[in-house]
Design a protein that fits this description.
Layout: H1 13-30, E1 34-41, H2 44-51, H3 53-70, E2 76-81, E3 84-90, H4 95-110, E4 113-115, E5 118-120, E6 124-130, H5 140-156, E7 161-164, H6 167-186, E8 192-201, E9 207-216, H7 225-235, H8 238-260, E10 266-270, H9 273-276, H10 281-292, E11 299-304, H11 312-324, E12 328-334, H12 341-346, E13 351-354, H13 356-360, H14 366-381, E14 385-388, H15 394-403, E15 407-408, H16 419-433, E16 441-450, H17 456-473, E17 476-482, E18 485-493, H18 494-505, E19 510-520, E20 529-532, H19 537-542, H20 556-559, H21 563-572
Parallel strand pairs: 6-7, 9-10, 10-11, 11-12, 12-13, 13-14, 14-15, 17-20
Antiparallel strand pairs: 1-3, 1-6, 2-3, 4-5, 8-9, 8-15, 16-18, 16-19, 17-18
Helix pairs in contact: 2-3, 3-4, 6-7, 8-10
The structure holds flavin mononucleotide.
Flavin mononucleotide is lined by residues 462, 465-466, 469-470, 479, 486, 488, 500, 503-504, 507, 509-510.
């Protein structure tokens, strides 16, 4: 006798087991395949929390109806748990049939459901296992377990997708268990280490803060945070690790404050959703603040937008407690979640971090530019500071400066580094801007002609190589490339400038190298080294505009006729020039 789920009318778990056993027996006799498709709704709990259980029940009934509708008569549809359904398919011919079924299921689940006044859209993570899967045999338990593993893999890949079970997937599950175990011992074994990625002023490149990023170095070699952080979250070890990370941030704040006083960079640290769910969090952080004597005003807690979507009221209480202790907050990955303006205004947030995905496309995609411009505008209207993440090129930096974005973080300026290197970077910066320490300063300005037009790849290579060289040699300045001509200014110790210039002069990519000016300098004009290309529209905006009196844009060699004009041109090309 089959049994049914009273809520949805499809088979219940015992009915499903009975149906699956029968299907396996029949398939064995016929030498055919049986497949099991497991369907788990993504974020169903959030819907229940948000709209109430009645609404959740209505949604389940509708999903069950749709699944029943798209299944063939020979296929058994069942509800296996709160938000989990299964379909048993007999006489499966090929995996492609199953993939097509999975696609149809995804489409059916994704179609919005109207419940009273509200429209709900859900997605599903789907796992598929078939009797042909190695080792699956024909036991129903095994098939169910394998389908579940596949479903979990689909969920880990972000949900709204389907995944077949296969042995590699099984291996991955075992590997994750190993890592979860290793993470529990990582603190004790002192395998965790903080790294700091400087956050700089968008215009000047001056370091004003740093994000603490966690690294894990177990015996078998470094494991990427992309891999271990989700495992730490899922296994709960993130609570203990998170407290350790916060302590490291406090210790860094103390150390930097002692070194550089009020001009010391602030420290930004990530807080995970699991930590916010911990009722003891505020007390633990308060103890650490007291222990270390760190200044909460110089500590920024980064929370991600998406984690506030579930149970926002409880999380708000914790965030308010933390803000009440004087800690500052940043909304991380802003733009990727769905927080409404009203929600944002309720949060005790001081900083918005614009997600790297928008920054990456900023040069090519008008849509990304529009998002960034809108987010900057929104942040300003709410009186928040803006930090752009993942800035990797000069073009992105200039674009962001143009929008009025305050701060920048990314490889273009600095990669994450150990604490001692971070201290060195700030020390170097202090030395650069202090005139007393900058004796023997020299600058050189030249123009030249490219032997052949440079491709974007060549320009990129040039940028990368020279940036590393110049950082080592303590050289700042700027290289312009337009209409096949170069103009460059080098600033630094006399020996370093002349030696670098010799190497530049000998480069076969250009010819006709003409020195326009070289002389001792009292101070640096540029705080870092950069390269500007003709399509850097933001630079054009800020640069001198000769078009009013000159029908043709001026070529660099014409500008070079008058050293003073040339000097004025290049020093005006960077928005952070201090006259
Ligand atoms: C227009 C132009 C500008 C350059 N600017 C620099 C520079 O500022 N710093 C630098 O080290 N190399 C610069 N180079 C590259 C040097 O000519 C040379 O290839 C490089 O310094 C050698 O680096 P390596 O010893 O790491 O191979 C430039 C080359 C060209 C064509």
């Amino acid at each position: 006798m089959s049994t049914f789920d009273p809520l949805t009318g499809v088979a219940d778990r015992p009915g499903f087991r009975e149906g699956l056993r029968g299907a396996l027996q029949r398939s064995q006799r016929a030498g055919a395949q049986v497949a099991l498709v497991l369907i788990n709704l993504d974020a169903f709990q959030a819907i229940n929390d948000l709209h109430g259980q009645d609404c959740g029940d209505a949604l389940l009934r509708e999903i069950a109806r749709r699944l029943q509708h798209l299944a063939r008569a020979s296929e058994l549809v069942a509800r296996l748990g709160a938000d989990e359904f299964g379909i048993v398919c007999e006489q499966v011919a090929a995996p492609t049939d199953l993939a097509a079924l999975a696609e149809r299921i995804m489409g059916a689940v994704r179609t919005p459901v109207e419940v009273g006044e509200v429209t709900i859209t859900v997605t599903a993570s789907i796992g598929i296992a078939a009797t042909s899967d190695a080792g699956a045999g024909d036991s129903s338990d095994e098939l169910l377990r394998f389908a579940k593993t596949a479903m979990q893999a689909a969920r880990q890949a972000g949900g709204d997708g389907w995944q077949f079970f296969n042995p590699q997937m099984h291996e991955r599950a075992l590997h994750r268990m190993d890592l979860a175990h290793g993470l529990q011992l990582a603190l004790e074994r002192e395998e965790l280490a903080p790294r700091f990625q400087p956050i700089v002023e968008a215009g000047s490149g001056r370091i004003v803060g740093a994000e603490l990023l966690l690294r894990w170095f177990p015996q078998q070699g470094e494991i990427s945070p992309v891999e271990f952080i989700p495992i730490a979250e899922a296994s709960g070890s993130v609570i203990a690790i998170g407290a350790w990370v916060f302590r490291q941030a406090c210790l860094a704040e103390r150390d930097w404050h002692r070194r550089w006083g009020e001009t010391a960079p602030y420290v930004s640290v990530n807080v995970s959703v699991r930590q916010l769910d911990d009722p003891a969090l505020a007390d633990v952080f308060a103890d650490i603040l007291r222990d270390t004597g760190a200044d909460p005003d110089r500590l920024l807690l980064e929370i991600t937008e998406s984690m506030l979507m579930v149970d926002i009221d409880a999380k708000l209480r914790v965030l308010d407690q933390l803000a009440g202790m004087g800690l500052r907050m940043a909304m991380d990955d802003f733009g990727t979640g769905y927080s409404s303006l009203a929600q944002l205004a309720r949060l005790p947030v001081d900083v918005l971090k614009i997600d790297r995905s928008f920054i990456q496309d900023i040069a090519e995609s008008g849509e990304s530019r529009a998002v960034v411009e809108a987010v900057v505008g929104l942040g300003r209207a709410l009186g928040l500071k803006l930090v752009a993440e993942g800035v990797e090129t000069a073009a992105q930096q200039l674009e962001l400066c143009g929008y009025g974005c305050d701060l920048i973080q990314g490889y273009y300026f600095y990669r994450p580094m150990p604490a001692d290197q971070m201290v060195e970077a700030v020390e170097r910066q202090t030395a650069l801007v202090e005139p007393s320490k900058a004796t023997g300063l020299y600058f050189l300005l030249y123009v030249s002609e490219a032997v052949a037009p440079l491709s974007p790849q060549q320009l990129d290579q040039l940028l990368h190589r020279t940036r590393a060289n110049n950082a080592r040699a303590g050289i700042t300045g700027c290289l312009l490339y337009e209409n096949g001509r170069f103009m460059q200014m080098l600033e630094g110790e006399r020996g370093a400038v002349l030696e670098t210039f010799e190497r530049i002069r000998n480069n076969h990519m250009h010819a006709g190298v003409r020195v326009v000016m070289k002389a001792p300098a009292r101070r640096r004009i540029f705080t870092h080294w950069s390269m500007l290309l003709p399509d850097d529209t933001a630079a054009r905006r800020d640069g001198p505009d000769f078009h009013g009196w000159q029908a043709q844009p001026m070529e660099f060699d014409v500008l070079a006729e008058d050293a003073r004009v040339c000097y004025a041109f290049i020093t005006a090309c960077v928005p952070d020039v201090k006259h």
